[in-house]
Adenylate kinase (Corynebacterium accolens), 115 residues
Amino acid sequence: AAILSEKLGVPHISTGDLFRANIGDGTPLGIEAKSYIDAGKLVPTDVTARMVEERLSQDDAKNGFLLDGFPRTTEQADILEELLSKKGEKLDGVLNFEVSEDVVVERMMARGRAD
């Protein structure tokens, strides 16, 4: 995703990066997300969507963006469509990259995660 965003000249917006940045900055959304992460739970869709919405409002995303990790569900896709519609925008395209479980485990282990 990072290579593609560089070639397209648009920001690569990863939900994992959004979580880490918001938690690191101590934002209200970061504090809320951290409480779920610390409890071993998934961050709820509404929290993730609010982070994505805030990020998409930044200047560098005005001419396009590449989302990584959002949307993951039909509900999240509907929310994204609504967020963009409020701004008078729409998606130009969607790419879905499928990765084998072995590669996912390898990447998680490289990040120091065992879950």
